[in-house]
Amino acid sequence: MNTLFRLKRPVDRLLETALVVLFFVLFACVIIQVFTRYVLNDPAIFTEEASRFAIIWLSLLGTAYACGRLEHMAYAMFP
What is the pTM of this model? Predict the structure, then answer.
């Protein structure tokens, strides 16, 4: 069992890094899209597809990371 935990740590680190990179890619694409659309009046074409790609992989890898940590997204509306 210890061997599995030792193998899980690098995978978690890789997932964490991938999630952070994908989040910043998504952030940058949205900022570039807003800038080119409203300031330059000529929207960039690649940003829409890149942001869609990033959000899909962000949700898939984020779900895998959360399941690996035995966590679940929950809304605490009512204490």
Answer: 0.79
Q: Can you give 37-74 as a three-state secondary structure string?
A: HHCCCCCCCHHHHHHHHHHHHHHHHHHHHHHHCCCCCC
Instruction: Give the tens place of pLDDT for each residue, 17-75.
Output: 999 999 999 999 999 999 999 999 888 888 889 999 999 999 999 988 888 887 776 66
Token pair listed for 61: 């890898």
Rounded Cα distance between 51 and 64, Å, is 20
Q: Quick one: which of 23, 78, 31 has its CA closest to 55?
A: 23
Query: How far is residue 21's CA from residue 28's CA, in Å, rounded to a whole number?
Result: 10
